[in-house]
Amino acid sequence: MVGVRRIVYCLIIITKMYKNPEIESSYQHNDLGRTIYNEIVKLKPEKVIDFGVLNGYSTICIAQALRDNGKGKVKVYDLFEKYEHNHSRLEVLIKNLKDCGLLDYVEIEERNFFDWIKNPEHFDALHLDISNTGDILDLVWDNLRDKGVVLFEGGSEQRDRVGWIFKYNKKPINQSRAKFKVINNAFPSISKIVYEN
Questions:
Q1: Read out DSSP for 43-107?
Q2: SS3 134
C-alpha cells in the first residue's frame, strides 16, 4: 500500500511542476520558460496577458504557473496567420494547450498590439513577444505605467544584434527610453520593465 501511495504522491507532484514545453520557440533551447514560470508563480496574478504567442510556448509556461498558483487566467492575443513574419495557426496553439492539459487556464483572441495599447485593459502581468524593438518598448514605457508587471522577449546585447533588426532598420531595444532589467540573459533573453516611483 505504501508503494501505491508513493506513486500517487509522485504523480501529483509531477503534474504540479514546471516542465519545459517541447514546442518550437526561440525560448525552448535555453529553457527561458522557467524564468517566465518563476515570475508568474512569485507574482500570483489573477490576469496575465500574453501578446505574440507563436505556437504557445510562453502561454504554456504562464498557464503552468497559474495552475500551480491555483488561480488566474492568461489572455492570449496574437495576429496568427495575419502576421506577415514568423507566425502560427490558431489550431496549432489550441492543440498544444490541449496536449498539455492547460486550455482551461487560457482565453484566446485575435488582437493587434498597436490597437490594444491605445486603450489597454487592466492586467497583473503581461508578457510581450511581438518582434520587439526599441520603438515597441517606448510604447510600452509610455502607456503601461501602473498597469502591471511587464515581461518581454529581448533586452540583452546579443538579442539586439539579430539580423532582422538591421535588415529592417529597427531601433534596438537598448536604445529605448524604457528602463528595464534583463532577468535571464540566455538568448533571446527575458527582461522586465522597471518603473521608478
A1: H--SEEEEE--TTTHHHHHHHHHHHHHT--EEEEEE-GGGSSSS---HHHHHHHHHHTT-GGGEE
A2: helix
Per-residue pLDDT tens digits for 107-159: 999 889 999 999 999 999 999 999 999 999 999 999 998 899 999 999 999 99
Task: Please name the amino acid found at residue 101.
Answer: G
Element at 37 (helix H, strand E): helix 33-43
Residue 174 per-residue DSSP state = G
Question: What pLDDT digit, counting tens, does each position of 34-76 carry?
Answer: 999 999 999 999 999 999 888 899 999 999 999 999 999 999 9
Q: Under DSSP, is residue 165 helix (H, G, I), strand (E, B) or coil?
A: helix
> Residue for cell digits 497583473?
124
Edge-to-edge, what's the strand order for the sheet holding 106-110? 106-110, 73-78, 47-51, 125-128, 149-153, 190-193, 180-184
Locate 94 and state its grid cell: 489550441
Contacts of 143 by beta carbon, 8 Å cutoff, 6+ apart: 117, 120
